[in-house]
Amino acid sequence: MREDWVEVQYQETVFKIPTSKQKLKQKEYSQSGEFPVVDQGQELVGGYSDDAGRLLVCKLPVIVFGDHTKCVKLINFKFVPGADGTKVLQPKLNIEPKYLSYLTHVLVHKIKDKGYARHYQHLEKENFPLAPLVEQRVIVAKIETLFSDLDKGIADLKTAQAQLKIYRQAVLKKAFEGELTKQWRDTNKIIYGWTNVNLSDISDSCLGKMLDKAKNKGLLKPYLGNINVRWGKFNTDSLKTMRIEDSEHVRFQLIKGDLVICEGGEPGRCAVWQSDESIFIQKALHRVRFKANCNSYYFYYYFFYQAKIGGLNAYFTGTTIKHLTGRKLKEFKVPFCSIKEQNQIVREIESRLSVCDKVEQTITESLEKAKALRQSILKKAFEGSLLSAAEIEQCKQDPDYEPAAALLAKIKAEKSKK
Q1: How many angstroms separate the Cα of 71 from the Cα of each of 46, 195, 240, 290?
Q2: pTM: predicted TM-score of the whole model, two decimal places
Q3: Alpha carbon separation from 165 to 49, 136, 208, 353, 368 (Å, rounded)
């Protein structure tokens, strides 16, 4: 701690504003109204009210702290406090409100999350180093400048993420319009010859076995259910078993290259089975086994593309809960071309999407680093190391400068007067 800073307990720097007469229960919120309701939720405003008698009388700005959620909000407008867990804290005169707000974020980060228990009882007992008032303002200005630059960088990263999503769909669109392989066809002197066919024309499909413990016979075998199928992959960490008879192996057992498609949940979600492991499918899944001259991954990517653009919706049945029935699956239209071109399309898609995956991974890591950098900036600010020596010296030259010890005396005097 710097020599002109002093240590103070959090509760010494704020007044707790009573809210018992004004607080509004969540069920009483309106979707619109004259006065915003501020509570302990993640959003700045939780709802609205037209009851002027509920407005909290206090000197603004104030810090609203979520006793259960640990959310911290700096509020500079008239509001109605939400009920249960909404603590309203008014910074004392010699504390810069934004400085205390940023500091509260740092202290809250240190407090262990205790679920729906109360957290303010821990926050108010936290000690922190208090800077001179002039320096508090300079620290706030520097934090906001750094955060502004950081927010711009984060916005750029999120824009890049959105553009990657658009690019992925553009790659798939061109793939199934024959654009990705146009140059390949020209080089290899292959004539364009695409047709639209029903899935049943090029494959054999069936729904998995009904899970009926009372009727099922045979040996216990591991099986895949809807929850085991993700887009492009399988989660086989905790497989369940059901009884399968020998005569049912051909129908319900997967072989390498089968396309496994969800019937419900997220209808159409699918992946290609590529293991030699003996495994079966339950009724929540379709097994599609392609005939010769078919690349399973070509059709997986087509399903993925159609799911993303809403093309599968026309094949779903049901109103509230959607399903992709066996009959509708057989009617599903797919663009068909030669096996050589299918293979080339898969290579072209995977080459481009692999680059997308690497870029997206870099973006994700950068966003995580940005989150950590925000905490690092705040940590340095309240350790006294955010400002340069020249900036600190400039603070000391300010005519209003006084050491934090003098500031603390004023804070204690204000408490006594209050």
Answers
A1: 13, 57, 41, 53
A2: 0.76
A3: 40, 43, 33, 10, 19
CA torsion sign for 119, 124, 129, 135 is positive
Distance CA 9, CA 408 (A): 11
Q: Which residue, chain included where needed, has tokens 């925000």?
A: 374
What is the reported pLDDT for 238?
Answer: 85
Q: Is the backbone peptide bond immediately before 132 cis, with ω within 30 degrees of 0?
A: no
How far apart CA 175 and CA 180 sit, in angstroms, is 5
Report how far residue 160's alpha carbon sits from residue 166's, in angstroms, rounded to the nearest whole number.
10
347 to each of 168, 337, 407, how far by Cα in Å? 14, 15, 69
Helices (H), 111-132: 120-123
Tell me the helices (H) and strands (E) count for the chain, helix number first.
11, 20
Whether the domain at 6-132+407-417 and the domain at 195-336 fall into the same CATH topology: yes
Domain boundaries, the chain: 6-132+407-417, 195-336
> CB-based contacts of 86: which residues, under 8 Å, 6+ apart?
19, 23, 38, 39, 40, 64, 65, 66, 67
Nearest to 135 by CA among 327, 372, 404: 404
Helix (H) or strand (E) holding 133: helix 133-175
Class for the domain spanning 195-336: alpha beta
pLDDT tens digits along 59-108: 999 999 999 999 999 999 999 999 889 999 999 988 999 999 999 999 99
Q: Domain 6-132+407-417 belongs to what topology?
A: Adenine-n6-DNA-methyltransferase TaqI; Chain A, domain 2 (3.90.220)
d(CA 397, CA 400): 9
- Nearest Cα to Cα of residue 225 among 217, 212, 234: 234
